[in-house]
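User: For my dataset I need records formatted as: sequence, then structure tokens, nothing else. Please produce one.
Assistant:
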Amino acid sequence: MATPPGRPLGDDPLDDPPEEVTRADEEWPVAREYLAAPPPPPTAEAPPPAETAAGASRRRRFPPDAHPLLVLALLALLLALPLGAWLAARDGEPAGSGSPSPEPAAGATARTTTEETTSEGATTEASAPAEVRVPDVSGSELAAARQALAAAGLRVRVRFRESEEQEDVVLGQVPQAGGRIPRRSVVVLTVARAEERVRVPDVVGARLDEARRVLEEAGLRAEARRVGSEEPEGRVLRQSPAGGAEAERNAVLRLDVAEPPPTVAVPRLLGLTGPQAKLRLRQLGLRASVTRVESKEPEATVLRQSPPPGTRLRRGTTVRLTVSRGPSLIAVPDVTGLEVAGARAELEAAGLRASVVEEPTDDPAEDGLVLAQEPRAGARVARGTQVTLTVGRIG
């Protein structure tokens, strides 16, 4: 290229090698004519701005005489390179495909549809709804309920409950039918199971702890009731239901278990009436046996008791009571017309006593004879009662 006019070759300061050469100049050498001229010397009116030594020594400039067509050709080339790369990448895609999609990350699901298995086993692909309606499966058999819930896009969890209803029939469901829940949610079904029956083992005579263990192994439970007995403490006396019978699993058996009978002190009952003494003993858990005897004491009075007061007895023991029947009654014999001696003897023989009262008489035939008696003949009086005799005497 020609040297710029007005400056002879060799007079340009840029003809000499520069003191500093940038890395970019080494990679892309630039002709001297394209290098910028050094700045004019500073004047007092306008001092030059500060620059680095490398920037001040040399700067690039675009060729001032570049042709406009060359510039347009360079721009077209720069635009054609990325367009060609894009077309080459596009040619590798299948026809009809849109813009390439980014590859899914590891573990991410690339498909946005949900695959479901119908009752016939065919795989269908459809967009999964956010919520589904819960079907009503109460009263259905378990297999049919599972199928209906699976068709609705729901999962099933089953819990069994012993019931008298038909086995494997759905008794209830949670959530209830008709509600809307997210797809793939769990529906809990309560399903009937037949009540299981077991044979009752015989535990009579065994100790309570051993009886409980045997019953638990058989699927049964025990409820003990303490009963006073002479048998060793803790031994099973009776059971209900009896051994050999059948019962529902987890049924409760009642066991009567022996324990030492408690004791009570016998109270003092002498002087009480028979009914009062019986009530007192019954309140203490004791029994009474009564023997009635004749006595001068008032009727129904307790005369004796056995065992004596203060004795300690087990509950249920019998206390013997002797109760007064009262004095015995006898008929007064008729002794009128008898001599005093004979009348007295007859009354004493009957268990009565005699007292004599004399009465004057003018009749010699009445002298020394019993003219009257009190109580009168035939009256019933207690043994030992005194009978008053009226005897005639000639004055």
